[in-house]
Amino acid sequence: MAEAYDIIVIGAGLCGLAAASALAERARVLVLEREPQPGYHATGRGTAVMQFNQGSQVVQALTRASLAELSGHYREIEDLPLLAPRGLVRVARADQLDQLHRFFDTAGPKPLCRWLDSEEVRLWVPILRPGYAAAGVLEAEVRDIHVGRLMALHQARMEARGARLVCGAEVTTLLRRTNAWQVASEAGTYQAPVVINAAGAWAGQVGAMAGASPLSLTPKRRTALSLSAPPGVDVAGLPMVADIDACFFLKSENGRFKGTPGDDTPCLPSDARPAPLDVAKGVDRLMAAFDLKIGQPDAVWAGLRTFAADGNPVCGFDPRAQGFFWLAGQGETGIQTAPALSRIAADLVEGRIAPAGRHPAVPGLDLADLAPERLSASFA
Ligand SMILES: Cc1cc2nc3c(=O)[nH]c(=O)nc-3n(C[C@H](O)[C@H](O)[C@H](O)COP(=O)(O)OP(=O)(O)OC[C@H]3O[C@@H](n4cnc5c(N)ncnc54)[C@H](O)[C@@H]3O)c2cc1C
């Protein structure tokens, strides 16, 4: 006899855990994770910043609506903060100034977002090569996110509310029987009327397993490099630096640098590994922009960011497969949008809101822009 729950969440990245902790207030929730620990894939491999001008209008609305919760202090994590000041300077060479102007015109809010001339850029980022940047835009609101603490918070909350997390439990079969899903996993078989697909890069595969609508979700690989800071370079207090065309990012962390060539290579879901050429591009681009002697990186890794074609997440019940709920396609902003998106997911699963129209906690968002149906052009 399969163990029975109200809701089974597939995937224990941040998005699965945040939804589980919200739903566990009123339901019996089980989270199934293939890996031996939660957060092993995209959640554990990111840059971990909160950027308010990143992504579509929908993503930006979700990000703003997540700020209050991320700014809170919670006894489950000993009142430690989830956010830390960072700041971001987007830089442009002379040949990229048009892109920088276009970005600045739509970015906000001013004056937290402000134009920097080349000298001001060098004052903010003294490690840039002299003459490299013709101008920049400072986004003072950008914060670091403590992803480990956020994961710990949601895991502690869901467990305190009676939810269960089973790791080493890859879901292999999903069958709808009468009023419930039978969910077969490596750790056992379970059943629940509602299944939440929070499988990150594997969301498309999990959807196919359930016979759900074939949404087009594309995992894209992004490479990251860890670099030691040259002697004498004070990395503390440096803002993050990004090329306006996203050809590189650099951020200091614990006395070191984390960089990326900004690659976005479409690929199949997997335990992503960096391609040597992307690592080489990362080193070249960072050396061209920064006055740093960058040798071989100390560590390299890659992660998958999974996108729907319009760049919005997918959050809603599938129109074809009863009780099958999508929580996927968070792309490059799944950490910073998790508070608002998990609240919306919980409200939709519990039937407290309609799948189209406004959500009171997320000004400027129409829920139809998150619904699986909007990707209907890709349905077979
Ligand atoms: C390099 C990089 C930089 C990023 N930077 C940022 C940033 O600065 N800010 C930000 O907000 N976001 C950032 N992101 C994006 C963010 O990390 C993701 O949007 C977010 O982590 C997605 O979370 P998730 O829970 O959906 O996916 P994941 O963390 O990938 O979790 C999905 C889980 O599902 C499990 N799973 C899959 N299939 C099955 C199955 N059949 N059975 C059981 N379990 C299964 C997987 O093992 C995995 O643990 C970045 C991502 C990358 C890769």
From TrEMBL:
<protein>
    <submittedName>
        <fullName>FAD-binding oxidoreductase</fullName>
    </submittedName>
</protein>
<dbReference type="Pfam" id="PF01266">
    <property type="entry name" value="DAO"/>
</dbReference>
<dbReference type="GO" id="GO:0005737">
    <property type="term" value="C:cytoplasm"/>
</dbReference>
<feature type="domain" description="FAD dependent oxidoreductase">
    <location>
        <begin position="6"/>
        <end position="348"/>
    </location>
</feature>
<keyword id="KW-0560">Oxidoreductase</keyword>
<dbReference type="InterPro" id="IPR006076">
    <property type="entry name" value="FAD-dep_OxRdtase"/>
</dbReference>
<dbReference type="GO" id="GO:0016491">
    <property type="term" value="F:oxidoreductase activity"/>
</dbReference>
<dbReference type="InterPro" id="IPR036188">
    <property type="entry name" value="FAD/NAD-bd_sf"/>
</dbReference>
